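Researcher: Good morning. I'm working through a list of sequences from a screen, and I'd like to move beyond sequence-only analysis. For each chain I'm collecting a predicted structure so we can compare shapes side by side. This is the next one on the list. No need for commentary yet; just the structure.
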Amino acid sequence: MLINCVAYQNGSKLGDIPVAEISEYVTRPECFVWVALFEPTEDEIDEMAKEFDLHPLAVEDAHKGHQRPKIEEYEDSLFVVLQTLEPVSEAVDAALTDGEVAIFVGRNYVLSVRHRTQKGFNDVRARCEREPELLRHGSGFVLYALMDTVVDRYFPILDAMESELEQIEENIFVRNAARSNIESLYALKQKLMLLKHAIDPLMEATGKLYGGRVPQVCAGMGEYFRDVYDHLHRIHATIEAIRDMLTTAIQVNLGMISLSESEVTKKLAAWAAIIAVPTMVAGIYGMNFEYMPELKWTFGYPLAIATMVAVDIYLYVRFKKTRWL
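Model: Good morning. Structure tokens for this chain:
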């Protein structure tokens, strides 16, 4: 589906144009065309490839989708793949859905293709149009604005993960909550790895846009792409910190489970010892031998019972002091 097809010249918006006229506008000096597509069909992508004269390998990747975040250079154009993450609800522990944005960038054009991503980039277009001096940089500035927006949308997700981890840590020492805590920690770890897989390849690729031989379409935009790289580096550092905290939290929860099982074992052993004493005494006197001590004594039975109770009380008090019970 076509969202926007707009022509710009010298940082100013000329207006919406028909798709059939794209090839005419991209040949004009100081002019570039910015097109946005959402869940396009193969025919729509092929039509854009014809108008912009896109590289066939990049078009093939756009058709297939599910690409790893990357930045590839084809002669005087770039093909950029960004991974988007969106929570399914506003809850702190909400699951994440992953999407993809493929961006074709040439000297006189920008084509963005969104897949499985509900949140669009109308705010990015409005921001660029409010800054005509920066928009004069052309397609390079639009690429920066799109990448910067995608990266900035990672920060609220990262903040939600930190809040979720804090909630789980508050329940670490709650009785009988260790197993559910581990399930929550592993679910959080899966989301964190999803974010890491979106960040790490992009951070490596972004480094090529501001240092060394910079692609022609990004010339003069080095400081802007360095800013994107700095944001990615901050997110990467936070991810690593959360991963360490997750590992520690999982180990603590496993330790709590082991401690709980040890306490159960101690209780069972203590009650087994308490029960063993009367069982032993009763077993001895239940063997029915003829010559047994105090067998015909009047107070033998009450004394045996009293002895069993006294020993059990003594054992119970001792186990209670040692916190086995």
